[in-house]
Amino acid sequence: MRIAVVADGEGGGWIQELDGSPGPVRRVADLADAVRRAEAEGVRPRGAASGPGPSGPRPPRWVWSSGEDVYPDLVRAGARVSRCHDVALTEALLLGHDVRHAEPHSLGAAWARLHDRPVPEDPVRPLGEGTAAQPALFEADRSTLPPGTDRLAALGEVHDDQRRRLAALPDRERMELLAAVESAGGLAAVEMSGDGLPLRPDVHDEVLTELLGPRPPAGQRPAVLADLAARISDAVGRDVNPDSPAQVLRAMAWIGHPVSSTRSWELERVDHPVVPLLLRYKELSRLHSANGWAWLETWVRERPGPDGLRLGRFQPDYVVGGVVSGRWATRGGGALQIPRAIRRAVRADPGWVLVRADAGQLEPRVLAAVSGDAALAAAAAEDDLYARLADQVGGDRERAKIGVLSAMYGQTSGDAAPLLATMRRLYPRALEYVDAAARVGEGGGIVRSWLGRTSPAPADWQARTAGSEGERRRRAHGRFTRNFVVQASAAEWALVMLAALRQGLPELPEGAGIVFFVHDEVVLHVPREYADETVRAVAEAETRTRTTLFGDTPVRFPLSTTVTDSYDER
DNA sequence: AGGGTTTGCCAC
DNA sequence: AAACGTGGCAAACCCT
Question: Structural domains in chain A?
Answer without folding.
Answer: 2-168 (no CATH), 204-293 (1.20.1060.10), 313-361+493-564 (3.30.70.370), 364-483 (1.10.150)
